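Cross-check.
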Amino acid sequence: QVQLVESGGGLVQAGGSLRLSCAASGTIFSINAMGWYRQAPGKQRELVARISSGGSTKYVASVTGRFTISRDNAKNTVYLQMNSLKLEDTAVYYCHADIARYYSGSYLSYIGQGTQVTVSS
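Predicted model, tokenized:
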């Protein structure tokens, strides 16, 4: 079993900051890419940020310069620092990770339960 557990969501005023965390636990041999998706009401889920096992990052254009993704491989944890939050950042944020559970296993995609981020005016 593998679990991804997100934390750090909440209510924040526009212009404020939040830091999301996501810890992977269970039988884990290796983690490849990790990332964050979000889904706003009535909209499709979108990839917000992604970080490779080597630390290379990618962001959706709308958050570039405001959000920073990072990871702690020793803790199997990925973070999303969100600054200068806007009303349109309101969404449920989901953690994602590509995990191999065994040495000879293939990488499978796992996603967490989600954490709500609400930005108010």
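The longest strand covers residues 30-39. The chain has a mean pLDDT of 97. Passed to J.P. for a second look.
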